[in-house]
Amino acid sequence: MENEEKSLNFIEQIVEQDLAEGKNDGRIQTRFPPEPNGYLHIGHVKAICMDFGIAERYNGVCNLRFDDTNPAKEDTEYVDSIERDIAWLGFKWGQIYYASDYFDKLYDLAIRFIKEGKAYVDEQTAEQIAEQKGTPTEPGVNSPYRDRPVEENLRLFQAMQNGEIEEGKMVLRAKIDMANPNMHFRDPIIYRIITSHPHHRTGRKWNVYPMYDFAHGQSDYFEGVTHSICTLEFVVHRPLYDWFIDQFSGENFAGLSPYGPDYRPKQREFNRLNITYTVMSKRKMLQLVQEGLVAGWDDPRMPTVCGLRRRGYTARAIRNFMDRIGYTKVEGMIDQGLLEHTIREDLKETAPRVCAIFDPVKLVITNYEGEGETIIAENIDGHEELGTREMKFGRELWIERGDFLEQADNKFYRLSPGGREVRLKASYIIQATGCEKDADGKITTVYATYDPNSKSGTEGGNRKTKATINWVECQSAIEAEARLYDRLFACENPSAEEGDFRDLLNPDSLKVVTCLVEGSLAKEMHQPEYKNGVAQVNHYQLLKQGYFVVDEDTTEHKLVLNRTCSLKDNYLK
Ligand code: ATP
Ligand code: MG
What is the total count of domains within the chain? Predict the structure, then answer.
């Protein structure tokens, strides 16, 4: 396998070293910890491939943990979509956990913290607290509430939880060190009040919710995670992650972790995925969805997993992409062309070819006498093993308008009266004889004659022509709606630009046109079946036009095709 030959990434090296040293008795446990406040995007997939990949490779387990500590933004719709997308990518989790399962434990820890004099209730506004934070080179200022007596802190924290205090009026802060060079140690907020929204799992039970730094490490610890892998922005949180766990481990807290007092989860960080011409933030994506700037989370222009899937990306291509870009400790930007290159490579091997005409003009073969016939064409030229399809052929065909010129010089290899012989894809050789125009001079019909002895697959089929053109037979052709997608943003790095990112959207990111496809696609004319919540749809290469996927808007009356990518690969240049 490709994987086996590749050198280890730096996290795999750490894991192998830990295994060699016998850490955690050889146990490997990771987790993927999404907050259910949006759909997964391709950045998350990078983390998923890491978290699940490590577990798969080293006989460990990767659990799914929903980091659901902010009811104002979270919803079961997101929980369901996250499970669906991970399963579609082909990964299997061990357990499903929720940070909200630990609310009781975390609340108890907060109480113990207060009793030990390590936490206090602050009544200042968020702005005041921020002002007192200091800078990396200047110490912060102590809150006037920092030295409240323990009893008062206990009473107020109770009152916060009882719903007696208005949202935003009080927070619980850890009492650590306002002068610490690591700003995260300057009395971080560990609990806040949220009363405006019920929690999607615990309802109205809680009025206080733990902050990330007070929930994440502890959750890892409760579950027995060995390698807590995340992205580089958490490097600065790592000392605090370790510090909290140190406070809650050891003899005093026996029973909180299943693995004894010496066990510690270790946080490790890798570089985030950023891709050109898009954004990689759930908050921004939510805004695009809510404001109707895209059709939904699964709009084929979105960098979400469901958007990419609807665009025609396969799970295999997305995972290959992650293998290619790898994991490092430096932030960077990946060319969107590489992502397209990976899906193009994937579909090149698998997508059956069909003819489609986007700007049709009628072609009449004047010497064709028959009622029509069936041509057997290979799905992918030169790959008999990948099957064949039936194409209807007859006297009247649609061809691309651009494949005929009434007057052409000898550099034009396609149809022109008195010009060269041209092969109709997978069938006969024809020669143009003339055309007919309407009152405006627009060509309405092209006339040609064919050579009955030139059919592809017969002896005469070997005769070479300079050009081959696409066609669909008029009676059997099907009209399809083709949705031609392009980059969502007009500039390379919308997140780095000043001003509103919504002003940077590409106004030409979607063009909807009608085309005529060969009748063999009639079998696609039905609503797709859904398996595990995912539409089961097929991919095609529309010859000379690009790779397309059948869209789930298709019905028995209307075929809808999404362009996944064009055929031109600019990445390799
Ligand atoms: P966003 O900023 O889009 O809201 P997030 O980091 O807040 O993303 P989470 O649900 O907290 O979203 O992320 C779950 C996991 O996915 C985290 O471990 C996070 O590090 C990882 N992750 C998120 N975005 C990326 C990315 N662009 N590249 C790699 N990993 C990512
Ligand atoms: Mg987050």
Answer: 3
